[in-house]
Design brief:
Layout (H helix, E strand, L loop, with lengths): L2 H43 L4 H50 L5
């Protein structure tokens, strides 16, 4: 395995770990804030059901943020692949131009 392939693989691993961390933090933040709001309302009102309602809202918000983050990841991967294909096509055109000879 070449050095640049190893570096590329390491970058992909780091990017995947960063994405996992970001997803986990986003989900826990959504649920934690919602739970806190529900708990606070329950303490003020003297009820016990607002925690469950806000926790459900927090779970739905965390699922939404999960879709947003994974959609962003997917679109960035597609952009990288598209750029690689365009670069390969450009380099192929440049190499083809050098091999052509002018006909009289």
């Amino acid at each position: 395995m070449k050095k640049r392939d190893k570096k590329r693989e390491n970058k992909e691993i780091i990017r995947a770990l960063a994405m996992l961390t970001q997803i986990g933090l986003a989900m826990m933040t959504c649920m934690g804030i919602s739970f806190g709001i529900g708990y606070y309302i329950d303490r003020l009102a003297g009820t016990r059901y607002w925690v469950m309602i806000f926790l459900l809202i927090g779970i739905l918000a965390s699922i939404r943020s999960l879709f947003i983050l994974t959609g962003r990841l997917q679109s960035s991967e597609e952009a990288v692949k598209k750029a690689a294909v365009e670069a390969a096509a450009t380099s192929k055109e440049e190499s083809d131009e050098g091999s052509k000879t002018d006909a009289p």
